[in-house]
Amino acid sequence: MNAVDSTPRAGHLSVEDLKTAVNSGDITTVLLAVPNMLGQLKGKRLDASGFLKTIKGGAEMCAYVLATNVDMEALDGFELTGWEAGFGDVAVVPDLATIRRVPYMPGAVLIHADALHHSGLAIDAAPRAMLRTQLGRLKDLGLDVAVGLESEFMLYRGTAQQAHAAGYRALEPVAPHNLDYALDHPVELTDFLDDLEEVLRGAGTPVEAVKTEGSAGQIEVTFPYGEAIAACDAYTVYQHAARHLAERHAMVPTFMAAPQSEVGSGLHLHLSLWRDGRNAFAIPDEWDLPETMQEAVAGLLSGLPHLAPLWAPNVNSYKRFRLRSFAPTHFTWGRDNRGCAIRVTGDGDGAHLEVRLAGADANPYLALAASLAAIHHGLTERPEFPPETTGDAYQTDDGLPVPADLVEALADFRSSKLALDAFGPTVVRHYACAARHEIRWHRHRVTDAELERGFDRA
């Protein structure tokens, strides 16, 4: 594992490059995008020539983009916005280091932006701002963060409209059975993966590896190590591209944590801390973890239980944590043990941690921010370093159990001193409010499983 490579990649444009491309007619549209609480890109299509005239001013967007649910409902209870405040706007200021081509949308560039109050202050609850805050806290300790993201998702035949018309039931995966590590894929799947890899290279978001996973129709995409915010920005582009390309291939992806019973998709965070250009997690020999890594592991295992709504934000998130599912059921750590929540992997200067808790539905900025807040807790408060879990991690009494559901997770989060210290009361109230709305939506819905189990037997 190498240090973060900051060399500009093909697909990224400078401001001058953008001006040249706009003036030549090569670029006509700017997609100005803010990651919302779900990690999805929200924003506006702007005329590229008009954008250049106000490039530093950016645009405006209704604040509810950062205070809503998957249905984009105007919800109450948020301090950032609401009916009492008239659902006013926030400023959307482009991050001009993030200009990139999106080859699946010819003539367009995508620019990530930050949401600001009109005073110019960052909105604390905006995901990019939350991650930036945690990076700053570690920077104050003399530490930089390197991150590699590993994403799983399911891919089905048919368009999104067809899946919706079918009620998302009885969907057909693009592969008929488990093709884990296979290199002989159905032609239609190979074509999709070829296109996905090509457009991501063109967007300056090259993948490190792609493989089919253990469930029929499941795909894993691994990205190279990089700077933390850039890694999360790239991840949002990847999801955006995957949805666009799937539609063109008459396929539909889902990033649900548990899209089917007995199926789970994760978002694994590979990370390490660097001090003065050297990996602070480097393991000098086969057995001894360096002190900094021990403190980070102890912080993750003692801190992440209190921050679950940030890495498991939905009711469905908790249905992924099952026995021998490759998703952890307890807060444990182990060397190269995929049953643990924290996996120590790599060796020598390439040693790093894999945090295996977040599902595919997690917002990468928030899942990473939570992990870094927990690591900061470990480095500064030095909780006890627990013993390693060896063997079958699903048959251990080590560590706290993963929260059973979002209700349990919310109760811990909103009263957590760690959460308040790391993110501040405004942010904790914001994401607690989002979790309450998610719980309320589900609470009185009758599911297919309930009907099947009880309709003629109750």
Write a concise synopsis of the structure shown.
It is built from 13 helices and 16 strands. By secondary structure, the chain is an alpha+beta fold.
Structure, described:
The chain is of the alpha+beta class and 458 residues long. It folds into two domains: 109 residues, Ubiquitin-like (UB roll), CATH 3.10.20; 318 residues, Glutamine synthetase/guanido kinase, catalytic domain (Creatine Kinase, Chain A, domain 2, 2-Layer Sandwich), CATH 3.30.590.10. Strands 7, 8, 9, 10, 11, 12, 13, 14, 15 and 16 form a ten-stranded mixed β-sheet that branches. Strands 1, 2, 3, 4, 5 and 6 form a six-stranded mixed β-sheet that branches. α3 packs parallel to α9 and α10 runs antiparallel to α12. The longest helix is centred in the middle third of the chain and has 21 residues.
CATH topology of the largest domain: Creatine Kinase, Chain A, domain 2
- CATH homology-level superfamily of the largest domain: Glutamine synthetase/guanido kinase, catalytic domain
Beta-sheet strand percentage?
15-25%
What structural category arises from helix and sheet content? alpha+beta
- The figure for the number of domains is 2
Helix content: 25-40%
CA-atom Rg in angstroms? 22 Å
Assigned CATH architecture of the largest domain:
2-Layer Sandwich
**How would you sum up the global shape?**
globular
Q: What average pLDDT do the residues reach?
A: 94
Could you tell me how far the N terminus lies from the C terminus, measured between alpha carbons in angstroms?
57 Å
CATH class of the largest domain: Alpha Beta
The major β-sheet equals: 10 strands, mixed
